[in-house]
Amino acid sequence: MSNVISKISLYAVLVIGALLSIFPFYWMFVMATNHNSVINSVPPAYLPGPELVTNFQNVLSNIDFFGAIGNSLIVATISTIGVLFLCSLAGFAFAKYHFKGKNLLFGLLLITMMVPPQLGLIPQYYIITQLGWLNDLKAVIVPGLIDAFGIFWMRQYISSNVPDELLDSAKIDGCSRIRVYWNIAVPIILPAFATLAIIKFMYMWNDFLWPLVVLRDESVHTIQIALRGLIDAYVKDNGMILSGTFWATIPLVLIFLLFNRLFISSLTQGAVKS
């Protein structure tokens, strides 16, 4: 009887937690489907309204929504792929190879994670201007191709989930280092890839400050900068703003659903250990 009560209590807590997590997204959807007057009424609406299409049409009339979505997809996708490849290579080297100064380099890498990114804004901007990359998506993509947390995450995951004996066997069979990485390590660390992909994609998708600094032309605006254009100084249409925000969130939800199983696997049991 006590086990039944404990299970019921556990599931009740999980359901309540899930509802609390989903509620902000639901509330945003409700706001996106109602007129501004309904949103500002007291009490506010709690059910979806009939203005979803109208509000989204207002979004399209004020900003280049799909162009900004396309720019964000390009930036987030290329940056994520680059981080997965480069950080996994670096993490593999830190985890499985011994070279002079390895611990010092890894310690310096960890120190960079403690430095606020705002401190590097001015020197990074200077480098971008010298390269002539202002108003170019490369200004956002290239600095995002490497990530200190990504290297740390991959190093820790590879250390605990890729056995040295398996790598030694591959080397005895004549595999090169790059083949050992690609054919042996990569299939094992797919859950780590999924976790890092979700984190990096969300970070690049939601990044606002750096794209705002280097992407001034409206044709290269990412979605977060474009959404800022929905805020009028005199008339604030909350339904339109929340409509744009709601549709801009959909790609993040799809990415999470796509990698959800591998993400949970990496946080629980990881790959199969020998």
List keywords for this structure.
MetI-like fold, membrane, disordered C terminus, 274 residues, mainly alpha, single chain, transmembrane
Q: What is the gist of this entry?
A:
By secondary structure, the chain is mainly alpha-helical. The protein contains 14 helices and no strands.
What report would you give on this structure?
There is one protein chain. The protein has helices at 2-32, 36-39, 52-62, 65-96, 102-112, 121-131, 138-141, 148-161, 164-172, 177-188, 190-206, 209-214, 223-228, 238-267. With 274 residues, it is an all-alpha fold. It starts with a helix and ends in a 7-residue tail after the last helix. The chain has one domain (55-267): Orthogonal Bundle (MetI-like fold). The chain is built from 14 helices and no strands. The radius of gyration is 23 Å and the shape is globular. 27% of the residues are buried.
